[in-house]
Design goal:
It is a single chain. By secondary structure, the chain is α+β, with helices and mostly antiparallel strands. The chain has 14 helices and 20 strands. It has a seven-stranded antiparallel β-sheet with strand order 2-1-5-4-3-6-7, sandwiched between helices. Helix 2 crosses helix 8 and helix 9 packs parallel to helix 10. 55% of the residues are buried. The model has no long low-confidence stretch (mean pLDDT 95).
Length: 565
């Protein structure tokens, strides 16, 4: 890059370009959400978009799932590694959902394209969204898959569109999924988002020229790296460790899956080592290396640069060690359907490990998992098959100076939203009979952990239900004397003779009139509960966050409790 361009670049131009790139990604995301056919995208927001430079570095990324932080570039890099840099042609659009390249499950489909201006490659636009069904052995996804071949149609990287014309891959998609109309609608929404990104990038190149745009990008990357290295350098040098377990892999229900983390800080560099975590499992809790790195990046960013947008300068102080063949570095044919459970745990473990060094920054653990319920069957009202998949909200951990938040999505999902009751009851043959805060589920502490929720479903027709609830063995832990939260509970037909309690189930048959009651755990507490402010305890009781009996048990020395005695 010419020295004159760098010298002529002023801070105002850099900031305008920084915000223009972020706005371009936001425009892409809005296009995708507003055009999508599936509620999980247009209501839930289970998607993310980004604009990359020619070296696959992030220029702008929308709000979305933090779990995809710095992850989309692995898809375009995979194309170059397989086919060479000369493969990029104007008018081509690529698709990929390979779990071992993108790192996630097959339902997370990435569609991306090169951006050309006047015949020159200037960057890439990329989108990722959850497709409701990929032709797995069970509708929407299996809770008991034991290899990738049971989980559906695996692609890529392959061309979806070549030279502006559709390829036969689209026909392959249509014939391999259960809901082709909805799926192709979501695919077209993703393509529309790509075109929005292409237009915005072309406008920026036209306004500033490629030299200025590249110079501004390098300056943005430099600033980000400097800030992050300063934050890392403030952490005392040393080795920090933490570990936890998943309940099981969904197949061997009596065997926990250990996740072990070692963090090494030296100067302004930080290394994350998860090589001592479990080997890949038979059940579907595995993920590819790319997704393990993304999970570690989320934990890093929460403590190092929580307020800054991610870009190509992010994570430069950070290195990772992931063992191939482990549950965090899975290789074919490992099952990957519920790849995110250990990543939520891993994010919490980053805070747990660094708590002694950063007591004023860390939070106690959150409820930690997506707590999935799927419902599928034939809707008798319209005579069509349906599938619904939902993540259930829970409590987040407290931190120094504040209680944890109640009823939030888990840490891997970020801006993902719970699906509105009105939409659910309109689109699917079910009724949601209760949706409430779960009292006493947050961990006690000087600052209390947030509470989880109760969500109860009554089915209006025969259907099958899938359940994936985690973190009962390692619920949200407290920090610095704070207490652990309550774990999750799922009850089928509560109070009836056929009542069943289970946290995981695959395609379980349900009859019209059957009920499923979900109770999600809260977040961990922070600090000694005996130091909690008496008025805060009184307010918690008045607001229904805790019961008087819970206060008696966990806050016995507070004045309000003593007065009651």
């Amino acid at each position: 890059m010419a020295t004159s361009t760098m010298e002529a670049l002023d801070p105002v131009t850099v900031e305008i370009i920084r915000n223009a790139l972020t706005s371009a990604a936001d425009d892409m995301n809005a296009t995708l959400i507003r055009s999508a056919y599936s509620p999980i995208i247009y209501e839930g927001g289970d998607c993310v978009v980004a604009i990359l430079d020619t070296q696959h570095r992030v220029l702008g990324q929308s709000a979305g799932l933090p779990l995809f932080l710095g992850n989309l570039e692995y898809c375009s890099i995979a194309v170059e590694q397989q086919f060479g840099v000369e493969v990029w042609k104007e008018g081509d659009i690529w698709i990929l959902n390979d779990s071992y390249l993108g790192g996630t499950h097959l339902n997370d489909v990435t569609i991306f394209a090169p951006i050309f201006t006047d015949g020159m490659l200037v960057g890439f636009a990329a989108t990722r969204a959850h497709w409701m069904d990929m032709g797995s052995k069970d509708v929407g996804g299996s809770m008991d898959s034991v290899d990738i071949f049971q989980e559906g149609f695996r692609m890529g990287p392959v061309k979806l569109i070549e030279g502006g014309a559709e390829t036969s891959v689209i026909d392959l998609i249509k014939t391999n999924v259960r809901f082709p109309y909805q799926t192709i609608g979501d695919m077209n929404a993703m393509i529309a988002a790509l075109r929005m990104g292409m237009n915005r990038m072309t406008e920026l190149v036209g306004r500033y020229g490629i030299d200025v745009l590249q110079a501004a990008s390098e300056e943005i990357f430099r600033q980000t790296e400097v800030l992050e290295r300063e934050a890392v350098a403030a952490i005392p040098d040393g080795i920090y460790e933490a570990e936890g377990v998943l309940d099981n892999d969904g197949i061997d229900l009596d065997r926990p899956v250990p996740i072990k983390l070692r963090i090494t800080v030296v100067g302004d560099s930080i290394d994350f080592d998860v090589t001592e975590s479990a080997d890949q499992t038979r059940g579907p809790v595995n993920c590819g290396v790319a997704q393990a790195i993304s999970g570690l990046r989320v934990g890093y960013k929460l403590l190092i640069s929580p307020h800054a947008n991610s870009n190509g300068g992010s994570f430069r102080p950070m290195t990772t060690q992931v063992r191939s063949g482990s549950v965090l570095g899975a290789v074919a044919p490992a099952a990957c359907q519920w790849y995110f459970s250990h990543l939520g745990l891993l994010i919490d473990l980053v805070s747990r490990a660094l708590a002694p060094a950063l007591p004023d920054r860390v939070a106690a653990a959150s409820h930690g998992d997506s707590m999935i319920i799927t419902v599928a069957g034939l809707d008798p009202r319209v005579g069509r098959n349906f599938v619904s998949i939902e993540a259930t909200l829970g409590g987040w951990g407290a931190w120094e100076g504040s209680d944890g938040e109640s009823a939030l999505i888990n840490n891997v999902n970020g801006s993902l939203r719970d699906l509105p009751i009105e939409m659910m009851e309109t689109r699917f043959p079910l009724r949601i009979t209760e949706y409430s805060i779960r009292p006493n589920s947050g961990g006690p502490g000087r600052w209390r952990g947030g509470n989880g929720v109760v969500r109860e479903y009554e089915f209006l027709s025969d259907c099958v239900v899938g359940l994936w609830f985690e973190r009962s063995i390692t619920p949200a832990w407290g920090l610095f004397g704070g207490c652990d939260s309550a774990g999750p509970e799922v009850v089928i037909n509560p109070g009836r003779a056929d009542e069943v309690r289970t946290l995981k189930a695959n395609a379980r048959p349900m009859k019209a009139g059957d009920v499923v009651r979900l109770a999600v755990g809260g977040g961990g507490g922070y600090g000694d509960p005996q130091q909690r402010d008496a008025q805060a305890v009184a307010d918690d009781i008045a607001n229904g966050y805790i019961t008087p009996e819970f206060a008696e048990l966990h806050y016995p020395s507070t004045p309000i409790t003593q007065e009651k005695d």
